[in-house]
Amino acid sequence: MQEFWGKPIFGSKAVKVKAKLELERHNVWRELIIPLNMTFREFHKALQIVFGWRDYHLHEFYIYSDEVYKNRDYKPVVRLVGNEEAFDVPTEIETKLERDIVLSEYIPYYRKLKYIYDFGDNWQIYIDIEDVTENYELNHPVCLDGEGDAPPEDIDGETAYENFLKAVENVKASQNFMVRIIAAARGYREFDIAIVNNELKWYCVQS
């Protein structure tokens, strides 16, 4: 099957989603189309790619009804986690392993999700289901649009990210190669939709 990857083999149901990283002073978002026969584990990998992260840290999904899901007091429908150790944390929310759950079990019936990555930096991505495609002809996600550069790994929050961006700007003027090396080591790069889509396709080939 690998020789057919990325080619229109069959139609499947998919959704267009907008994933927005919650930052106070920066606008960072991605718009994707995601086949609903993917698992949430695969969706996690796709989010890692489009935001330029390297899957160094723990993460989890929360699925909500259509009520306002930024309200901290509003209880999610379900929590999806990446490893069994997460079940050791007491919670009243139903918890499942993401690798066992296909997107179509919850989407598009539920249209609002939250994805949390790196519990230290606590990056929170709010995901809205915008549209449903009944006959999607690819079997991998595609990034349709996006804006802003996501923070690199282990940057220690938004304030540190702003300082990092200033240092990166200084690199362009002063050719500070040490900062450039640090940026590369943490996986930081400017958003490039062509590179992102190549990586999304390559990940599916390797899966």
Short structural summary:
Residues 14-197 form the Plasmid pRiA4b Orf3-like domain. The protein has 207 residues and is of the alpha+beta class.
Considering the chains and any ligands shown, give keywords for the structure.
207 residues; 4 helices; globular; Structural Genomics Hypothetical 15.5 Kd Protein In mrcA-pckA Intergenic Region, Chain A; 2 domains; eight-stranded mixed sheet; disordered N terminus; 25% helix
Q: How would the blueprint of this fold be written?
A:
Elements lengths: L11 E10 L6 E8 L4 H11 L8 E6 L13 E4 L13 E3 L14 E6 L5 E14 L5 E6 L10 H17 L2 H9 L7 H14 L1
Parallel strand pairs: 4-5
Antiparallel strand pairs: 1-2, 1-7, 2-8, 3-4, 3-6, 6-7
Specify the helix fraction band.
Answer: 10-25%
Rounded to an integer, what's the Rg over CA atoms? 18 Å
Tell the overall outline.
Answer: globular
Stretches where pLDDT is under 50 for at least 5 consecutive residues are: 1-7
Distance between the amino and carboxyl termini: 12 Å
Instruction: Tell me the β content.
Output: 25-35%
CATH superfamily of the largest domain: MM3350-like
Q: SS-based structural class?
A: alpha+beta
Structure notes:
With 207 residues, the chain is an alpha+beta fold. The chain has 2 domains: 2-149 and 191-206, Structural Genomics Hypothetical 15.5 Kd Protein In mrcA-pckA Intergenic Region, Chain A (Roll), CATH 3.10.290.30; 151-190, no CATH class. Helix content is 25%, strand content 28%. It contains 4 helices and 8 strands; from the N terminus they run ββαββββββααα. The protein has an 8-stranded mixed beta sheet, covered by helices on one side. β1 and β2 form a beta hairpin. α1 (40-50) runs antiparallel to α4. The longest helix has 17 residues, at 158-174. The relative contact order is 0.22. The model is unreliable at 1-7 (pLDDT under 50). It holds the Pfam family PRiA4_ORF3. InterPro entries: MM3350-like_sf, Plasmid_pRiA4b_Orf3-like. It comes from Thermoanaerobacter thermohydrosulfuricus. Residues 14-197 form the Plasmid pRiA4b Orf3-like domain. This is PRiA4b ORF-3-like protein.
